[in-house]
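Async update (no meeting this week)

Hi team, since we skipped the sync, here's where things stand on the single-chain job. The sequence we agreed to prioritize is pasted below, unchanged from the tracker. I ran it this morning and attached the output directly underneath so nobody has to dig for it. Comments welcome in thread, and please keep replies under the output.
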Amino acid sequence: MVQTPNKILTLQEFFTLPETKPYCEYIDGKIIPKPMPQGKHSTIQGELFPTINSVVKVQKMGWAFPELRCTFAGRSIIPDVAVFSWARLPVDENGDIANTFAAAPDWIIEILSPEQSHTKVTKKILHALNNRTQMGWLIDPDERFIAVYPAGQQPLPFEEIESVLPVPDFCQGLQLTVGNIFGWLKVTT
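Output:
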Protein backbone atom coordinates (compact mmCIF):
# COMPACT_ATOMS: atom_id res chain seq x y z
CA MET A 1 0.00 0.00 0.00
CA VAL A 2 1.72 3.11 -1.20
CA GLN A 3 0.37 6.59 -0.62
CA THR A 4 1.11 9.68 -2.67
CA PRO A 5 2.99 12.15 -0.43
CA ASN A 6 0.35 14.90 -0.09
CA LYS A 7 -2.89 12.94 -0.40
CA ILE A 8 -4.83 12.01 2.70
CA LEU A 9 -6.80 8.81 2.18
CA THR A 10 -10.09 7.87 3.73
CA LEU A 11 -10.39 4.58 5.57
CA GLN A 12 -12.60 3.28 2.73
CA GLU A 13 -9.92 4.20 0.16
CA PHE A 14 -7.30 2.46 2.30
CA PHE A 15 -9.28 -0.79 2.16
CA THR A 16 -9.42 -0.69 -1.65
CA LEU A 17 -5.62 -0.88 -1.84
CA PRO A 18 -3.90 -4.28 -2.03
CA GLU A 19 -2.39 -5.66 1.16
CA THR A 20 1.40 -5.49 1.29
CA LYS A 21 4.23 -6.93 3.34
CA PRO A 22 5.32 -5.45 5.57
CA TYR A 23 1.76 -4.72 6.58
CA CYS A 24 0.54 -1.15 6.74
CA GLU A 25 -1.68 0.56 9.27
CA TYR A 26 -4.08 3.43 8.64
CA ILE A 27 -3.68 6.20 11.21
CA ASP A 28 -5.02 9.76 10.87
CA GLY A 29 -5.44 9.54 7.09
CA LYS A 30 -1.94 8.21 6.55
CA ILE A 31 -0.61 4.81 5.62
CA ILE A 32 2.11 3.76 8.05
CA PRO A 33 4.18 0.64 7.28
CA LYS A 34 4.88 -1.62 10.24
CA PRO A 35 8.57 -2.33 10.71
CA MET A 36 9.64 -5.88 9.90
CA PRO A 37 10.10 -7.77 13.17
CA GLN A 38 13.62 -8.69 14.16
CA GLY A 39 14.87 -11.53 16.35
CA LYS A 40 13.94 -10.29 19.83
CA HIS A 41 10.57 -8.95 18.68
CA SER A 42 9.69 -12.17 16.83
CA THR A 43 10.81 -14.35 19.73
CA ILE A 44 8.70 -12.53 22.32
CA GLN A 45 5.69 -12.34 20.00
CA GLY A 46 6.03 -16.02 19.05
CA GLU A 47 6.05 -17.10 22.69
CA LEU A 48 3.53 -14.61 24.04
CA PHE A 49 0.32 -15.40 22.16
CA PRO A 50 0.42 -19.20 22.68
CA THR A 51 1.31 -18.65 26.34
CA ILE A 52 -1.72 -16.39 26.76
CA ASN A 53 -3.94 -18.80 24.80
CA SER A 54 -2.80 -21.76 26.92
CA VAL A 55 -4.79 -20.17 29.75
CA VAL A 56 -7.38 -17.76 28.35
CA LYS A 57 -8.42 -19.63 25.20
CA VAL A 58 -8.47 -23.04 26.88
CA GLN A 59 -10.77 -21.65 29.58
CA LYS A 60 -12.82 -19.66 27.01
CA MET A 61 -11.98 -16.35 28.66
CA GLY A 62 -10.44 -14.83 25.54
CA TRP A 63 -8.28 -15.41 22.48
CA ALA A 64 -4.89 -13.93 21.60
CA PHE A 65 -4.02 -13.25 17.94
CA PRO A 66 -0.68 -12.25 16.40
CA GLU A 67 -0.65 -9.45 13.80
CA LEU A 68 -4.45 -9.14 13.60
CA ARG A 69 -5.92 -6.14 11.77
CA CYS A 70 -8.31 -4.29 14.10
CA THR A 71 -10.35 -1.46 12.60
CA PHE A 72 -12.09 0.96 14.96
CA ALA A 73 -12.60 4.66 15.61
CA GLY A 74 -11.35 5.70 12.17
CA ARG A 75 -8.10 3.71 12.32
CA SER A 76 -6.96 0.31 11.14
CA ILE A 77 -4.08 -1.01 13.23
CA ILE A 78 -2.22 -4.29 13.53
CA PRO A 79 -1.11 -4.88 17.12
CA ASP A 80 1.72 -7.32 17.66
CA VAL A 81 -0.70 -9.27 19.86
CA ALA A 82 -4.42 -8.47 20.10
CA VAL A 83 -6.44 -10.23 22.79
CA PHE A 84 -10.23 -10.26 22.68
CA SER A 85 -12.41 -11.42 25.54
CA TRP A 86 -14.51 -14.46 24.65
CA ALA A 87 -17.73 -12.44 24.86
CA ARG A 88 -16.48 -9.95 22.23
CA LEU A 89 -15.07 -12.39 19.66
CA PRO A 90 -16.56 -11.63 16.25
CA VAL A 91 -18.10 -14.67 14.59
CA ASP A 92 -19.52 -15.24 11.12
CA GLU A 93 -22.89 -16.74 10.18
CA ASN A 94 -21.46 -20.27 10.65
CA GLY A 95 -20.28 -19.57 14.19
CA ASP A 96 -16.65 -19.52 13.04
CA ILE A 97 -14.20 -16.78 13.97
CA ALA A 98 -14.82 -13.82 11.65
CA ASN A 99 -12.27 -12.53 9.17
CA THR A 100 -12.93 -8.90 10.02
CA PHE A 101 -12.36 -7.47 13.48
CA ALA A 102 -14.11 -4.08 13.54
CA ALA A 103 -13.39 -3.34 17.19
CA ALA A 104 -10.58 -2.45 19.53
CA PRO A 105 -8.99 -5.44 21.25
CA ASP A 106 -9.61 -5.83 24.96
CA TRP A 107 -5.86 -6.11 25.49
CA ILE A 108 -3.28 -4.68 23.10
CA ILE A 109 0.37 -5.74 23.28
CA GLU A 110 3.11 -3.97 21.34
CA ILE A 111 6.75 -5.05 21.20
CA LEU A 112 9.14 -2.25 20.35
CA SER A 113 11.49 -2.82 17.44
CA PRO A 114 14.87 -1.01 17.41
CA GLU A 115 13.88 1.44 14.66
CA GLN A 116 10.36 2.00 15.94
CA SER A 117 9.22 5.25 17.55
CA HIS A 118 8.30 4.77 21.22
CA THR A 119 5.92 7.74 20.91
CA LYS A 120 4.04 6.34 17.90
CA VAL A 121 3.58 2.96 19.56
CA THR A 122 2.40 4.63 22.78
CA LYS A 123 -0.11 6.70 20.79
CA LYS A 124 -1.48 3.50 19.25
CA ILE A 125 -1.97 1.99 22.73
CA LEU A 126 -3.61 5.19 24.04
CA HIS A 127 -5.99 5.30 21.04
CA ALA A 128 -7.04 1.73 21.81
CA LEU A 129 -7.50 2.55 25.51
CA ASN A 130 -9.77 5.43 24.53
CA ASN A 131 -11.91 2.97 22.55
CA ARG A 132 -12.80 0.13 24.97
CA THR A 133 -9.41 -1.54 25.37
CA GLN A 134 -8.96 -2.62 28.98
CA MET A 135 -5.16 -2.80 29.04
CA GLY A 136 -2.09 -2.18 26.94
CA TRP A 137 1.44 -3.48 27.27
CA LEU A 138 4.49 -1.92 25.65
CA ILE A 139 7.44 -4.30 25.76
CA ASP A 140 10.92 -2.90 25.11
CA PRO A 141 13.29 -5.86 24.63
CA ASP A 142 16.47 -3.77 24.42
CA GLU A 143 15.79 -1.94 27.69
CA ARG A 144 14.22 -5.01 29.36
CA PHE A 145 11.31 -2.78 30.32
CA ILE A 146 7.54 -3.24 30.16
CA ALA A 147 5.07 -0.38 30.51
CA VAL A 148 1.57 -1.51 31.45
CA TYR A 149 -1.33 0.81 30.61
CA PRO A 150 -4.48 -0.08 32.60
CA ALA A 151 -7.55 1.73 31.25
CA GLY A 152 -8.23 4.95 33.16
CA GLN A 153 -5.00 4.77 35.20
CA GLN A 154 -1.43 5.97 35.04
CA PRO A 155 1.02 3.67 33.21
CA LEU A 156 2.89 1.25 35.44
CA PRO A 157 6.62 0.51 34.92
CA PHE A 158 8.02 -3.01 35.26
CA GLU A 159 11.66 -4.09 35.02
CA GLU A 160 12.42 -6.30 38.03
CA ILE A 161 12.51 -9.91 36.82
CA GLU A 162 10.30 -11.21 39.62
CA SER A 163 7.59 -8.56 39.02
CA VAL A 164 4.23 -10.11 38.18
CA LEU A 165 2.62 -8.23 35.30
CA PRO A 166 -1.00 -7.07 35.58
CA VAL A 167 -3.43 -8.63 33.10
CA PRO A 168 -7.01 -7.63 32.22
CA ASP A 169 -9.76 -8.87 34.53
CA PHE A 170 -11.02 -11.42 32.01
CA CYS A 171 -7.58 -13.14 32.03
CA GLN A 172 -7.57 -14.18 35.67
CA GLY A 173 -5.37 -17.21 36.17
CA LEU A 174 -2.80 -16.00 33.66
CA GLN A 175 0.42 -15.08 35.45
CA LEU A 176 3.47 -13.71 33.66
CA THR A 177 6.53 -12.05 35.10
CA VAL A 178 9.06 -9.72 33.54
CA GLY A 179 11.50 -12.63 33.86
CA ASN A 180 9.18 -14.90 31.86
CA ILE A 181 8.95 -12.41 28.99
CA PHE A 182 12.65 -11.63 28.71
CA GLY A 183 13.71 -15.17 29.62
CA TRP A 184 12.36 -16.26 26.22
CA LEU A 185 15.27 -14.36 24.65
CA LYS A 186 17.95 -16.52 26.30
CA VAL A 187 19.54 -19.15 24.14
CA THR A 188 20.38 -22.16 26.27
CA THR A 189 22.87 -24.86 25.30
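Quick observations from my side:
The radius of gyration is 17 Å.
Residues 39-56 form the longest helix (18 residues).
Reply here if anything looks off.
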